[in-house]
Amino acid sequence: MDRKAVKRKSEREAVREANKRSRDAEMLLESNYRRNRDRRLESGNESETDEEGTDQSEIGIVNDNNLHGGQEDEQERNINESYHGNSDNDSVNDSDQDILTNDEDSDCESPGSNNEDDEPQAFLDPGQYVRQEILEWTLSGGISMAKVDDLLKRLKPVHQNLPLSYKTLLKTPRKVDIVDCGNGSLWYCGITSQLHRILTQEYLTSYNEIAIDINIDSVPLFNKSSTNFVPILGRLVGENHPFVIGIFCGSGSDPKDLDIFLDSFVNEVNDLKSNCFLFEDKRYNFRIRHYILDQKARASIKCVKGVRGYFCCEKCTVRGTDYKNRMCLLNHNCALRTDESFIDLVADLMVPKTKHFDDKEIDSHVNGVSPLLRCETKLVSKFRLDSMHLVYKGVFSRWLEFLWSGYGNYSLSLREKREISSLLESFRKWCPCDFNRKPFAIKSEKLKATELRRILLYDGLVAFKKLDKNVLKNFLLLHVSIYILCSPVFFRELNDEADTFLRAFVTHSKSLFGEEFIVYNVHSLVHLSSECLEHGPLDSFGAFPYENFLGMIKSRVTSRAKPLQQIAKREMEKMEKKEEIVKPEPPLLQMPCFNDPHEPVAGQQYKKILVKKSVLSIKLADSCCALNDGTVVRISNIIDSENGPVLVGKKFAEMADYYEYPIASSLLDIYKVSRLQECTFYLTPADIKHKCYLLPLKEDEYVCYAVVEFKDSTCEVVPTNWLDEEDGELVSYYPPDEWSDARLRKAVENRDGREGLELHKNVRVLHTYNSILVARANRKVAEDTSNLDSEFEDLNEPRRKRRRIVSQIEDSEDEDEQNIRSKHPPPPNFLKSVEGNIKEKLEKLSAKKKDKTKKRSQFNSPGSSPLNLSPLKSVGERDGNKSKNKKKSPVTRPEALSANSTALSRSQIDPPSRRGLHSAFSSPTWSQLNKSTDLMELCPGDLLASEMTEGDGPLVLDTPQNFTESTPSSSSLVIGRSKVSLRPISQAEHMTIISVQVDIKNRLDAMERMLCSILRALKPSQKVVMPKELPPLPLTTLDQFDKNEVFLSNSADRSDTTEYLSKCVPEHLSVKDQVYNIFRKTMSDTLAAHFNWKGRGKKTFSTTNLCAVVTGAILDVNKKNSNVIGEAETAMKEWLKYAPKRAATKTKKDCESSSSSPTDEGDIS
């Protein structure tokens, strides 16, 4: 919605509001009239004199008293009609008007008089009430004066005392004193007139003097125009609302004639300093505390060199170096400037130079005489280094620009930029209402000062945590020092530390980004701590209030014609209405609600409360606060009890330092909190120390899901807020059996409370996941293996044994058949079988069993093919005596392997798949394995874990847990023609071997992917190959979608899928068509109808792995398009939005085609 539409809407609402107030005033007047009439009837004061001795009003009253009931109702109806101007009877209107006049002038008690009932005063004239309301509404700003005129004309027939023009209503001056100022014009309002308008006796009683801050800045008025405003603004110390002292309007940024621009200001300041300020017959001392300007304005007002000068620093005498077209200030220990040394430089400037001097060598900081010297202004100590322009829009904006654009020695990769933007976008729902601008993705380094401040002090701690170690330390140096200087508590206590960190930041930035980074703003950081030590916290002399006020001034300009006169008249109209300084209100309860009907504390419940100028709410973003004892809590309810407001909250059980460099974060009240307790406690507003900004972390418990094994050996997905400890043992809450599947699934997804749940003891947490989809996908694996290698698992607990699986080895007498078998791919790997297919595959193998007696000859025959080794198939030599008794020999491992056993090809060994392994075991790194295990002991041949029985007895496979339980005995293993002695294998060795095997598999897969990439680059015309184990596309059901999410949870598979989809999209298409092509290939319309970009009653698509893959594919295709992410998101939203309609249309067409299809061949023409 554009600006004009918003203005029209506000004007329509204002007209409706004014009409409503007018009707209310008329109803109030009517009720007052009736009440006064009834009182006169009761007291007997009404007059019954003759018509000649009475006025018209008394006749009306007597006639009204002598009327019957029906006539009385008619008279009241006529009165109502007269108020609204709808009566056709002029005599009745005149009579009623006289009655109103008599009510105002009569001797009877009026609502505003002091009577025995002490009734509140009310407007007897509705026109006066409406006039006052329209006046205040117009002065509130943002209202078109033409619309005000239209409103006055519409209300004039009803309220005769209203003027026809806003100029009469607001007493707009007809003439404005404008002074010519060289390249523009100046309107000077004055300090005294503004102070009389805003000052109150309460303020003067508190401060006993008048101290103000001065701000001078420029603001452009229109687009594609050089016309600017340069206002002189003032602000009372201790207040947040600036006022206008004077405004310059002209072409260019600054007034050329500085003497004319500041002449009226300097004269008035001298007068106020000499004669003091007179207010209610009492004089108060006047002083200017600070001049808060940006660097460009300071250089212009003080008449000193700008940032391109060699001696541009205002606080010290450092000489700059011209490097890469920038003036770099590299020395940070030079002599400081003082007010006296500045006067000496001005005096030296006034002395004529008889000899030419070099500007590069002599301190030429001053290049003119400032008019402020006439009012004895100290041009060094009175001018502040503004944090908004210096720190946020200066240093930190430059830091982000160098990081984002790749200047210097370090730059962010595209992946890091996406991660930072994604994290900032996810902070929106966590951002408190204290921030006017919510976090969003960084699309460029040009941000608002408030956004830069929030990122530097709060969001950046989490958003930049994955950056390079040196870059993160550099950021923390700036963050900690600015956080200290902004705090009203720490700016004095830790001032020396802040100075040390700022100097370290400047030095470290030089090595990180190069010398070109150390310009005027970065160098000025070394003087910032001394500024705060002398003049207060950094925010006490910031320019934020003035910047907001500049926007309000700009919004009052409605046309390009005479903008200075428009602003001058609006300010002079405000002079007619005295403004009062608004004081902070006491704790205030807002938004009544019924959060918890079972709350033991009686009283009305609310959603918000105002505590120490901060709003606390039961909403997620505004519910966190710190108590006086240091505890961090989250508010869940607010109750107005008999003894005052009571807040209900929950504590965080664990608090730790979030960072330790350059100092511990706990010293600054910054903590990493976790484990939100379920038990609630009660506190009062006096217990609260300050409000907190809570940011989510991946490792935080309350954002995780856990796979829990219960006592009956079943595994379920349980939110971590359902877990607890009881007598040192882990317990879990879970819904009862009578709950439906839909209710259970919804409770788990919504992380509901524990009400109505059953307590289960002797549970074990197998693993925790950040995604509920991944947790559900691994639940079945946990039921089969009971091993997800959880950090919560107690290794001393007895582990559940897997069921014994029986199978038979397929045999064949035919040598040709055996040769064919040797060329087949290896048998199913270990983890695929563990995931549910073991029994089915082994039954198929048992169906093909051959005669056991022929297998022995097959094994030892010279022409037999090599044995296919796998985690599930291995053969041991049988002992004749043991085979007769059908006793099992223990499974052992080889002590020494021959050359034939170690030289195993990849076709002979099929290790676990990469995806399956990460869902079941955690693999250690290669370096960790080399430290703990000999390479010879990690041979894949150690995975042989089976034994053979004779006759019809099947091959029995034991789990790794049973290996150590078997009784050792003499046994041997045949590999090719070699006979190797075996020894028992332990569970730890078995798990280590699997980890090494997977590591080898991952390395080989990585090499294979690299080789495919090289081949694709060498042969672009080669057909694109689909990634291995990618589910069949397009996806049509939610189960298939969940399986695909599990597949894409692996970074390597996700990267392969992204590359595969990017190769399937033509580059000449638009981004929208590319997205549509990928969606048609990946998911059906029926499945897409279940999703929405942000959820809203459906499943959320923006947080899925498939969304990341689609975005990555589009980015790979459009590498030169900087706006591709926004276009891709818009296209995905549109595709999901219209998916239900496409699915319904397709279903309708299918039904029509099926109904119209011929049932007999004879019907075909």
UniProtKB/TrEMBL annotation:
UniProt signal peptide: none
Region (Disordered): 1-123, 803-926, 1142-1165
Taxonomy, superkingdom: Eukaryota
Bias-annotated ranges (Basic and acidic residues): 1-43, 837-848
Acidic residues compositional bias, start-end: 45-55, 91-108
Biased composition (Low complexity): 861-874
Comp. bias regions, Polar residues: 898-910
PANTHER family listed in its UniProt record: AGAP000105-PA, PROTEIN, PUTATIVE-RELATED
Name of protein: PAN2-PAN3 deadenylation complex catalytic subunit PAN2
Source species taxonomy: Eukaryota, Metazoa, Ecdysozoa, Arthropoda, Hexapoda
